[in-house]
Write a structure and sequence with these properties.
heterotrimer; A alpha/beta (356); B alpha/beta (249); C alpha+beta (69); A: alpha/beta; Rossmann fold; C: 69 residues; alpha+beta; Alpha-Beta Plaits; two-stranded antiparallel sheet; 3 helices; 20% helix; 16% strand; globular
Chain lengths: 356, 249, 69
Amino acid sequence: MGQKVLMKGNEAIGEAAIRANCKAFFGYPITPQTEVAAYMAKKMPKIGGTFIQAESEVSAINMVYGAAGTGVRCMTSSSSPGISLKAEGISYIAGAELPCVIVNIVRGGPGLGSIQPAQSDYFQATKGGAHGDFNMPVFAPASIQEMVDLIQEAFDVADMYTTPCMVMGDGMIGQMMEPVEFKERVARELPEKTWASNGLGDRKEHNVINSLYLQPEDLEQHNIHLQEKYAVIKKNEVKYELFNCESECDLILVAYGTTSRICKNTIKMAEAEGIKLGLVRPITLWPFPVEAFEKTVDMTKNGYVSVEMSCGQMVEDVRLAVNGRKPVDFYGRSGGMVPDPTDILNAVKAIVGGVK
Amino acid sequence: MAMVYENTKSLLDVPTHYCPGCTHGTIHKLVGEVMDELGILDKTIGVAPVGCSVLAYNYFACDMFQAAHGRAPAVGTGIKRTNPDKVVFTYQGDGDLAAIGTAEIVHAAARGENITSIFVNNCIYGMTGGQMAPTTLPGQITETSPYGRNVKTEGHPIRVSEMISTLDGACYVERVSVDTVPNILKAKKAIKKAFQNQLDGKGFSMIEVLSICPTNWGLTPSESMQWLKDKMIPYYPLGIKKDSTGEVK
Amino acid sequence: MQKVTFREERCKGCGHCIAVCPKKIISFADKLNVKGYHPATVTDEKMDQCVSCASCARICPDCVITVQK
């Protein structure tokens, strides 16, 4: 379209989904993402789509299971405690191999926590998110434009691999306003949904949406099949950004989402003091961009620092990717506190020493 | 020779895993016969629960879903709202619908979702080996009420049909039984009405079917039918609890 | 003339059909079917008494019985 519009993050989520042909939204109010539901409540009836404010996040994810199982593009959104409620439903969706998009606007935890931004759901999102051997692609936008692009990408990836996909923002991205452009997208070639349980019609064999395999031999085969699918996703769908890493760095920061923007400020501040910092910014948290570390491990004098709004979750995946070749440290704030670029710089200096 | 009774085309011709005498089979047949008579097999989507009838997706010939425990009405809502031209039914037991799934059935009914809900009540949790259900009768011995259900500590059973009938969104609620052939015929009529209501766009219908569980009741199939008649029907009276299908909306 | 036919391999020996038959002509056969149950049956001698009411077929949970007139 080429036209820029000033939008609030949560509303942009709704608009992006609609542009991606999302036909149904099932949600429940929870701060800081309620505006997604409110936006969909207004817009869905106008485009002949379905909006339901369900009685709980549990019910909402099960409505997604139903709609997705008939081959319809659908979405739900929530925040941390609500995502925990959805866990069983997400496992069912992954086990039954259904496409859908789940948005998590992360808030402080654990428990009821706070309504301020956080990144403490990383483990939950990237280690499957619920019981059983499964994973789902997790996209972490760092701006509202990127949120819009990734929501649309998530619907395509979901359909391509018949998998739930999560788009994970934080309270800051949900609430802030930035200019957004809804571009024409090149459509992926997506497989037909011949598996959909949407009425026999002319079919001779009925379709069944199911994740139960009582015979262990059958369930093992199913799990092997899921793992093969995840291997393809790992090969094809990794996204990351390398910032300021073209030549050797004193240290490389690792951050995603809102924190990555703060880190870019830190990098500018560090430059003024003669410290060269780079940034690895994962855009897919799962599959984790191991390749980004292969490319940069020899470019950093003092290793990496994972900067997160948590007590240290992504740092474990950084350590795994770096595999002992360089030091990996952590700096973070928790409970809904947002890191200050100066504090990050001080943490960096504690590792690399002062001004050069 | 004329055919008086043959098996419904809407059930796949496969043996079931249900115990000898379990009335799930009978109830499945009624739903199947109704699908035949209304000619809706090719556009019906059924939602199976967690419970003995989890494998219903292997028995019904229509497209099926297996839903998480208690969530069938939410799954059915997602299916029906995005496919309003299809016929959607949910099939649940008493643990699925009256314990973990109470929110989902109440809110699907309250929203007036245009689906058909079949609720199989046998006063016990069958699949997991005979534990107390929300519908277990006072004094009834189960694996988790080994001294008999004590209403002081275990509470009173829930009459789901009466509860759901208080909701304006529910257009038709009836409790039936399959203990005798006359009752089976009445149950079929009720189930057919519940599907017809959906075809007519009238809103949410629920048919509660009193059913037996010989294995976990510790009775023979025939003794179980007698227990249903003597003990269940007095506590869960048969009949129409709500019928607003005649009203003009 | 077989008014009522039993698919014996499907019968689980539950006895509901026996209980509801108004003519009391259904019984368990002596033999065992592949599942190890005594399947329900109507002997040739008793077949003439069948009135094709289909009570047995209606209550059978296992789709064992077909009824003709």
